[in-house]
Amino acid sequence: MWKRACDTAPKCKTGVKSTTNRADRENTVEVRLTEGVCRKHPVFPVSLVKPYFQTGEDKFPSRNKTYTQKDIVEVEDSPGPVKKIIKARKSRLNGKHQRQYLVRFKNQIEDKDKWLAEDAIPDGYL
User: Fold this and answer.
1) Is position 16 within any domain?
2) pLDDT tens digits, one per residue of 85-124
3) Structural domain harbouring 113
4) DSSP state of 37
5) Are residues 16 and 52 in the same domain?
6) Rg for the chain (alpha carbons), in Å?
7) Residue 19 DSSP one-character state
8) Do 13 and 51 lie in a common domain?
9) What's the structural domain count of the chain?
């Protein structure tokens, strides 16, 4: 019967292991893997590894998380409530991609349609 590497490998905790015997130790990190993922290759380039910073959730695990409701953004020159969204497009604003929607308002003609950002649509998060 064939034995898998997981069956013969010693059990160890997940974590970073020092790589003193490797010639390229400045560029790689060897990770100790658990039984479930021990068949994966444990050596990774340093560029894929991020440093661990302890967050407030780790320091205070019993602290209740608070969520705030997204504020409704009022459109000043809005002719009324939105009837439907006709089209969508992506545009670049201040170096960031932003999704915009062509919106038709209730009781308005097609000439009054406007391109609005997602956060500028009243009740858009509903």
Assistant:
1) yes
2) 899 998 887 788 888 889 888 888 888 888 888 888 876 6
3) 82-120
4) G
5) yes
6) 27
7) -
8) yes
9) 2
